[in-house]
Here is the input.
Amino acid sequence: MFDRVIVILDYAAGNTTSIKNAIDAIGGRSELSGDPDVVRKASHLIIPGVGAFSHAINSLKKQHLDLAILELVKKEIPILGICLGYQLMQEMSYEHGLNEGLKLLPGKVKLIKTEEKPVPHIGWSEIRLSDSLSNHPFMKGIKGEKYYFIHSYGVQYEKQFDKSGFSAYGGYRFSSITLSDNIVGVQFHPEKSAINGLKMLENFKKM
Amino acid sequence: MRITDFRIIARLDIKNEHVIKGIHLEGLRKVGKPFDFAKKYYTDGVDEIVLQDSVASLYGRNNLFNVLERACQEVFVPIVIGGGLRTIEDVEKALEAGADRVSINSAFFSNPKLIESIAIRYGSQCIACSVEAKKVDGLGKKWGAYFDCGREESGKDVIDWVKFVQDLGVGEIFLTSIDREGTKSGFDLELCEAVRDVTSIPIVASGGAGSKEHILELYKSKLVDGVAIASLIHYELDDIKSIKRCLIE
Here is the structure.
């Protein structure tokens, strides 16, 4: 079986070098692209992101990447959103006013609220998943580890949404990972979470 | 093994091609190659690595981009780069090479507007302000803010300075006690408390780690969110695994 090429979305928001390096390290191949035609043909897509939601979503729309991504969703192509990329996949964000996301997932992005801890949340935290979510291919061979987070906003869902795993920071509970069939999103950075993060990327490559 | 909400960070002070270690931020000794250290600490389970260009100010720029690029290819924990970063272009170069965050000191004194430019373009979280604090003689709980590896005095009070940069949009404080740096006599907890009292952003302390007991004391104080260590691990007086074990027990 030939090695598919993972497309890393290039839309002027965030560090793609680390993701590219991590994919190289797990023996995968990647291509950085902001061209909707390339994205449309991807076998796997990673949406990275660091920075402000509004700037990022506007860039995506301007480059018509939102439409290309929706086509991938229809084709059930595996898509992984990382950090801001994960937030962009949601319904909407409250960062700097109300902004609509790509609506691939029904979450809302809100400011981290805690009296106990400093913000941004910078550090390693655990993620908690239900048993059924732990069986998702993205989680294969991974158990109870901590991952590296750096964010000031968190994703929250209505109670009935059951595709999400959670983390807590200073009493603030937020969704740190969502596994919805081929749409996967993580608030943390797998490319900076050592061996277990790399394993997740490897699992994604095999999806 | 990771301890929640308290980062163990390895700081590599680099001059030319070598990791160096000093006392009171002066008097240097070469201890080895940066990439080798970064890899070793990554393998040992370090939470984060800081690559600090300690002579950047002499050349007016940061010389570590090659080390950074190479490290980012094989070290998959966050890497922070600092020393001689002066412009938004320097920051762009650092982030594109794979740095998770940048650490800046001197440039913020001469150009505080830089904070806002970086924050708007890349977000506050990628900006760590490196604060070098030295006790002001005879004035109790007062520290002056220094730059250029503790060589130059800014004339500003550390507490005023920290409040100022936090307001402008810095995402994190890397707080170094010049008095304790390299002495292995423990951390300046008074300094940590004074800074903690005026900040709502994360603080990483450094300067003074002589043993894992010092780090345990710092951890238990709940005053800071991480510790950056150098000579303690470079000279193999202790190692990352046993430091972490000590904190967990």
Remarks:
- The interface with chain A takes residues 2-7, 42, 45, 47, 72-74, 76-78, 95-101, 120-126, 171-172, 199-203, 225-226 of chain B (CB under 8 Å).
- The two ends of chain B are 12 Å apart (CA to CA).
